[in-house]
Structure formats: C-alpha cells, structure tokens
User: Fold these one by one.
Assistant:
Number 1:
Amino acid sequence: MVRKGALIFLAILMATVLSMGALAQQVTTINFWTQTLDSRAAWQPMAEVIAEFEKANPDIKVKVEHIPFAQFDSKLIVAAEAGSPPDISDINWMNAKPWAQAGYLEPLDDYIAQSDVVSREMYYEAALVGEHDGQLYTLPQGTGTYMMFYNKDLFEKHGVAIPQDWNELVEAIRKLYNPPHYYGLVRGFGDALYVFDDFVNFVVQNDGYITDEAVTRARTDEPAFVDAFTFYVELVTKHNAAPPGYMEVASAQAHTLFAQEKAAMLVSGPWARGMLATENPDLNWGIFRIPGPEPGKYGAVVGGWQFGIWKGSKNKEAAWRFLEFISRPENAAKWASQLNLPWVKEARNYPPFSTDSFLGEFAEMLAYTRFHMPASPKIPEIAEAIHIELQMALLGMKTPKQATDALTQRINQILSN
C-alpha cells in the first residue's frame, strides 16, 4: 500500500510539474520598439505602465527595445521588409498613413469593435491620422501643441492685457517694443521645422490648408492661407515683433531670448517649462491661447506619436491587449505625463493633467488643434519650401502674395515627383 501510495503521489507530482511547465510555455513575449530612450526621465512612467500590464496579464511579457530617434524609422522599415518587425511600436504621425498604405501595419477596426475600452470617439478627432481606405491602422499615443508664453512683469509694466485676437496681438507687440532691451515676440527663422510649427499655427487658426486631403495639390494660394502668411510676415516686417538677427535664431535660441527677458512673448509647448526653469528660474511667466483672427477662434498644430501593430507580427492578439491596456485613460495619462499630452480625452481627468493647471491648459487646447497637413513622406520637403518662401518675404525680396504663389508652384512640383 505504501508503495502504491508513493506511486500515486509521484504521478500527481509529475502531472503538476508538467502542468506548471505547460503554463510557463504559454507566456507570450511581445516585442515593443520605442524611440523613447530608457535614459530619459520620460521613460519612467512608461515603464511603470508596462510593469502594471505584465502584473495584470501574467501570460504576456513585454520586451522593450529602445532605438535612438535618428535611426528609428529606418530600422523599422528594414525589419518590416525583412519579415521580422516588432509586434508593436511607436509610429511617427507623419508615417502613419504612408505605412498603412504600404501594407506594413495591421488594421485595428476589428479589434476596436470587440473592445470594451477602445473606441474612435475616445480620442480627439484630430488624432486619428492613421486611417487608410476607411480602416484605422494606428492608435494615438501622445502629442504636443502650442500656446503663448508671456512675461507677466513686462505685460504689467506696459499695461498690456492678454490679447484676444490678431489685432490685439499687434497692439500688444507695439506696446512691448522697447529696443534694444526687449521686443514683443521672439521668432526663430533659422530652422525649417521650427518655422513649420510656428507659422502653421496661424494657418490653422485662419482655416487655411497646405494641401488637399489626398496630398495631390497645394492649397497655399487660397485666401485663408495667403492672409495667414501675410499676417505672420508683417508681424516682423511691419510691427517689429522680433529682435535683431531673427533670421538666424533657431528654437533653442528663441527660448533663451525669452528666458533672458529679451522678448515678452514666445510660442512654445509644454516642454518649454523645464527649459525656462533651467535658464531663469526667477522668470515670472504665464501662458494663454495663441489669439486667432477673431476672439475665441483658437487653433494650433499638433505632432507626436501613434501606436501601431505590425502586419508581420506573430503575436497580434497579445499586442492588442497591451495596446488596449495603454489606452485606458488613467494609463494614457501616466504614459504621456513626462513627455507629451494624451490624445485620450478622459485622460485629462487623471494626474498629472487633473492636478497640474499648466498641463491641464495644454490638454484642453487639444480640442482646437489639427495636424499641419495630412500625413505624407513629402512633409520635410514641403516644410523647407515654406521656410524658403517665408524668408524671401521677410527679406523684402517678394511680397507675401508673390511668395505664396511661388510656394504653390514649389509644393505642386514636390507632389508631382
């Protein structure tokens, strides 16, 4: 009897061990590639979300590969072409639609239809840039947008109220013009992509567009675009908005000039807070929405990142569960907390966006935003064309109308190639 009992016990023990082994074998590892380096402070809350996901989903492990931004897109494409992409990755918003068209990404609508968490409606409409042929291929991750930073002391000294429209912005710049000590608004024209962001804020406010939705023709000769272009140029040429040497000023220098109180206003995003705190912790500054052509008509551009599941993934269901978890409002808020603003509307009701008024104001601004233009691999060339023609107008070599006519020709040539 003892021997028989021992055999039964051994059989049960072996079955248990085999069962545990089988369970261990059922753990799925998904590969997630990100351009957020683990050395950056922004990664800490993201890592916390991943740890929480793994705890809630013990059958899935997330293997993270951090890739520098400069190499990120090329490594993804090489991996996709070789048939070995990650399961899920960050997707630059500019690549969302082109990569969907190229067949690199998995359509997500069937997953969304079965989800109790994810819906198109949970995001700000501007965020859904990864759509192709009626299917959504990416989910919004995080973004940045722009507001006007202002020097409270200079505003008070000159009796300047917060401007509510373009006319009041011009009047504020006029009052704050005090060379060589400071100027009304610092602009940086030394960097094409910086100018692209800064300038297109005003195009968005004025309901202008760079191209049509299909990115087949320019719309830069239309009145809404031309008027915004003219206003932007005349802020400098007519109203003396920028300090001397503005043509050589890039983004970092513009922030430094504001921090040094050489300018009373600066268009920037939430990332500027840390820069200003480093360069001048005693600066008394605030923010307000960039005034539009008329009171209450706000607008600004957005950029940022999306999430995509790759067509070549062998673990699509597990990757979706991870993506679904990140998309919960409380997790979306944490994921974006150190780097971006969350595209999930309800995320602004969670810390830090619910407790930090500065971030909260930026999050609320997302309701008035859109991308510069539809996603396209031609964007860098178009940004450079805008930069060139703005410089021509600012230097007086062309009128704004001549410059926008030339810009229209340039963009149509870019799109025809």
Note: Residues 147-302+378-416 form a domain with the D-Maltodextrin-Binding Protein; domain 2 fold (CATH 3.40.190.10).
Number 2:
Amino acid sequence: MRILVRIVTAVFVSLALMSTAIAELCERANGDAYYDTVLDITWAADANILHTLGVHPSGQMRYGVAESVWIPLLNQQNYLGVSSWRIPKWFDQGAEHCNMSFSGSDCGWNMDSMSSENWYNYSVNLGLKSKWAQQSDVSANIQQLPWGVEFEDTAPFSNIQIVRRYHNNGFCNDRIDSVTGELTHSIGFHYEYGGQHCDGLGSTGFIWPVVDGDVTAGAGDMSTCGSSIIAIDVDAFDPLNEIDPEGDIEVTVALLATNVADGDARDFDPGQIDPATLEFGPLETPAVSQVAVVVDADGDADDDFIYSFNVVGSGIACEDTNVGLRAETFGGDAVRGSDSITTPDCVTSVCHP
C-alpha cells in the first residue's frame, strides 16, 4: 500500500558546475521504467527486477558476480527491449578515493548529490536523507527524517530492498590485498540509512539496473514527467494490494489528497479529477461509477476519493506487480499515478495472452 506518491521535482546543485536543474522522473514502458532527466539514465521501476523476472533466486549477490554474471543474464532477456542495462555508477568527488565525511563528500553521509546515481536517486528522486546529520548525532541517536527504513513511500518505484545495501559500479582503489595485489572492496550504497562506503567484496547486495539515455518505450514523451504524478492507493485497506484477475470482479482505487503543509511534495485535491476521464490498468478501463466514495483512506485527515474498476476490463494479469491510472482534471491537465500490487503466480509460462 502506497501512503504517498512523491512528485519528483527538486533542485540539484552540481558542485562542479555550480548550476541548477530541475530533476524529474518521466514514466516509460507503461510504468515499468522511469527516465531521469538530470542523470540522463532510465531506472527499472522494480528495484529487484532480477528476482522478479526469475533471473536470480533472491536478487542478493556479491559485487563480482553481479557485474560478470547477473547483469549479462538480464541483458540476454532484452528486458523492455534493452540489452545494455548496467549497475549504477559511483563518482569520485574531490580528493582521490572514497572519502568518509558527514557532508558533501563522495562517501559517508549527506554526500555530494552527484557522488553516485544510487545516492542521487535516494536523496533527490525519493526525497530521503541520511540517518545522521553529523558525527555527534550517532551517539546521541538524533536522526534526520525521513530516512531509509523509517520511510514507506518509495513511489513511483517498487520492490526497493530498503533494509539492505545496493551495489555501485566502483571499487575502492586504495583497498588492496598486500599479498595478491587485488582490490578487496567495492563501494556500496546503503538504502537502510542513506550511507555510502567501502564494503568487502564478500558482502552481498542488490542491483538496481539502469540504462544510459531515454531508450525504453515512450522515450521523448515529456508529458509523463513528474509534475503530472498524483497519489493513488489500490485497495487502500489491504497492505498487500492483492488482486486475483480470475476471481475478483472489482477493485477499488483511492485518489489521495496531498498537502505541502503536511510534508507532501504538492497540494492536490482529488476532487479536481474529472471521473469521466479515469482509465485504469493496461487496458485503460473506465470507472464503474463516476460517483466517488469520499473517505480518509490514508489517515491524514484529508478527503480521498475512491473509485471502483472492473478487474477483467483493466487487463491486470497474473504475476503483475504494478498498475497505473490515468485521468484529466476538469481543467484538462493530464495526471497519472501508479501503485504496487500482488497477484497470483501464473499456472502456465504465459502471463499475458
């Protein structure tokens, strides 16, 4: 269940260029990927796609085999028509090597926003902070919010292994075995507390695949970028958002009100949505009724609007993990939202006839 969908709009300051740019994520491949307009890369929407696709049994692996075995296997599948997926990069900033600090470095906490693609995604796109602002906060247990495991909203992405580390594509070049002369550590980013540092090559972590450029289906369509994202919650009172495509007749979707004063990324009133324009699922089925049930679906004292949709008409199929909704406001502005869902395993190898 998604409590809040964050509009991914932020100011990015490059220490090297001292310029600003607006960071947005643009939906691609029907919500299976998102193009980052600042990094000029496309993220898989599923942050553990290697496991979801059955490429890896859990998605958790050592860095060496991640780069040499599992990413090549993903590319053999030509996922979303792309065969050049890679591990997110780490960028050496300032003094050479991974320099631990509590501010503005390339390792540690509260880093330079361009110290790695993982950290940029965490801090800018997801709006999260490192757990600690300064050294003294560690012993005093003073925590910045929101950070890692304290934050449930990871939309528009899904399946983030928030309590674990993710691999960066980079070695700690100053960590060398004195006997063999081989590098002994890689640079990992830890989503559980927003830190980045050298980890032994035996440490396991996950891969969040990215590809350079805007290259998946829908490339170049800027109408799907962050300013049009709204918050939705499929089956708002079910934490797993379970849908049985063969057994369920209807599914409810809550359009959630958001408020900047409450810490949300934007002000949005779901009463602005023209219900006649609602389209849900791969087949873009309309709402069963254009009359909403108005309730506080997420416990924030705002009025949310709930609509029902026909499950079969939506096109949701077995093993689907994400579903989208599109609509227009009464003023004609296009909006969209997405949420993770849980569906049964397919009984055959064909999920989408």
Note: The chain has two domains: 10-212, 230-340.
Number 3:
Amino acid sequence: MNLQDNIKWLLIAVALIYIVKLWFDYKKVAVNAKGYPKTVGMMYLLIAFMTFTGVLSLSDKLLNWLFSQLGVNLIDAEKLADNKLILFSAFVVLAIATVFILKKSTKTAKENLNINTVEKGVGSVTTKEGPVNIEQTFNSGQSPEVSEHLIKEAERKNQEIDALKAKLKIAISPQEKLELSAKINELEAGKASLKEKIQTLEYRLKAYSDNVAVVKEANKRYQEKGIDVALDYLESIDFDKALQKHQQSALDNAKALLIKADLYTIKNKHSQADHAYQQSIQFKRTFDNTTAYASYLSKQNNFPEAIKQYSQFKQQVKQQSLALSEPQQAQLNNNLANASARNNNNKKAETAYDEALKLYRSLAEKNPSAYGINLANTLVMGVDLLNQPKAYLKEAKAVLVKFKGFYRAEKLLSRIERLEKD
C-alpha cells in the first residue's frame, strides 16, 4: 500500500470515529424526539453506504470483485485508480453530508426535548439573583441539558410503547385494539408529564444547591446514583430537629422539602408528595412551594384546595407587603383563574383572569420570545373556560406562529382548532 492510500485510510478512520461520536450524541438526546425511528433507519443506511464507499476506494481486490460481478474488467491500473478516486470523492461528500445531518438533527432533537415541555403552573425558584420563573426559562429555550435520568426513563417508556404497538399490529379483537390504543395514549401522556417533572426537579436542584447544603448533597446523590438514593437521603433528615439546632433555617427546610415533594411526584407517590408539600409550606410559605403545590392539586382535580393555596398566598403577600415580580403575579393570577373556573367560581376566576391577561400582554410586548406562549395560553384559556370573545383565538394564533414546532405552542394550536369548531 502506497503513501497516498495510507493517508486515505487515516482520513477515513478519523472521519468514521468522529461520525460515530456524533451518532451516539444524537441517540443520547433524540431517543424521545418526534420521528426518531425513521431518522435512525435513514442514518444507518447513510453511514453504512458511506463506510462501504470508503472501504471500496482503498481495496483493489474488493473493487475488482464488485465490478467483475457487474461484468466490468478493471485490471487496467488507470481505470482502477480513476474509480478509486471517484469512490473516495463520494465518501468525502457523504461524510460531510452525514456530519451536517447529525449535527442539525441533534440540535433539533435537543430543542424538541428541552423547550416548552413544562406546562403552566410549575412555579418558580429563587436563586442568588432573585426569583426565576421556571416556565419563562423553558419558554425562552434556557432549559437545562437533557439528563441521564430523563433519557433512561424515556427509553424505558418507549420500550413499553413499542411493545404495545407490536401487540396492536397483530391484535384481532376490536376490544383488544381499543384497550391497547388507550394504554399507548396513556403512556405517551405519561412520558410528556415525566419530562416536565424531571426537568422541573433538576432546575430546582441546580438553583437551590447554591445556598442550601442539604439540597446540594441531595443533588450530588441524585446526579451520581439517581432518584431513589436522593430521596432516601432526604427521608433520613429530621427537619424539625435541624431547625431547632440552627443547622438549617425555615427557608432552607422549605426548599429541601419542596425537592422531596418533587421526587415523590416523579415516583407517583402521591400521599407522600402531598405531605412533603404541606411540610414545606408549614416551615415557610413561598411563591415556589405555593405554586408547585397548588399546581399539583389542580392536576389531581382538587381545585378547591388549589384555590385555597393561591388565595392564602395572595393574602400573605398583601399582609406582609411582599414584592412579587410581574411574571410571578401573572402566573399566580393565571393559575388562580384556571382553578377557579374549573371549580365553577366564575366571579373569582374573571377577576384573576383580567389581571393575568393585562400582565401577560405587558410582558409579551416587552419580551415576546419569553412570554408570547404564556399570553397565548391565557387568551385560549379565557375562551375555553370563561366565555371570553372568540377573537382571542385569532390573537393567540398570531402569537403562536412565531413558536412553530414548540411543544406547548403545538398543543395550544390543537386546542384552538377544537374551540373554533365548537
């Protein structure tokens, strides 16, 4: 083998190693992305063809054999060299195309997995820089990186869904098909809910770790060993004793217990989650734990208790002259309006709704990329639950055009389509 062939071998090896790395990076984040199975098949074929052309461009024997099968004689050295050059050029073009596709697909998959997967009402966290609204952060694309825990859980749920889809293909009974379809839909909804819960937990862990030692340790155990180990650690702590011994402040306890509640919700341990939320609030009621608990209650259809939590916090804000940011005020009123409307308390719902809409209009005007979806959501909610003018749907659609492909935006557009038909 001459020097030129050795250089080609080296270039092909480096290219393949780099592409394999990109491929694993893509698989890591795209396992839960829309259209993933189709993309996998396409990418396997592209990488296989690219590798084959690379090997062919360097192997005289393999190239001669292949062309002999086609009835072409390449014994002529000049013909052989020309074809090898053509094949190597094809390899280079395919390699560049593969790198481009993988990088773009990875970026898109990350956006699909990270952005706008958190629904309204997940609450806020307070960092050293002040209160940060989680919903705003996810809407603006500043969400945390996809974690190993989310990937593993997504893979597990995808395996369950694939198994059910395989059964659905061979199912004969209409009743069996109906039951399997219902289970698949339930798992798909659970997958979206799980992403929301894990990303909310991880955002809070990261924010609270800066100033709460217990949360920092829980975060370390979560990152190294997973959810169960972090939860075991928090369950081992006597928070009352820690407060009495001045090892932790009431606010520290409230934050740590909110993390504990988040972990329980991921594990679907609802009675323990409810208790942890209440404990957190007993130590110190904050915007974070109030909105998190009230949102949790709303998802359990316990709207009266959710309304009670929002109302008590609003009263506390008034009595203690607490300062809430505009995004916090908007979220608080929006969620109170939602819960009140679903509990048929329209007067309370309309008062809160008007305030939320006014605030979100102002926020979206100043920062449309961060608050546009929130405004659209509030407009749609008004039509759906409070008989607001249907012109609001047109306004919401105009806002959502800028967020095409975002998870929450697509859900809202589907909701708008349903309302327009009613």
Note: The CA atoms of residues 251 and 284 lie 6 Å apart.
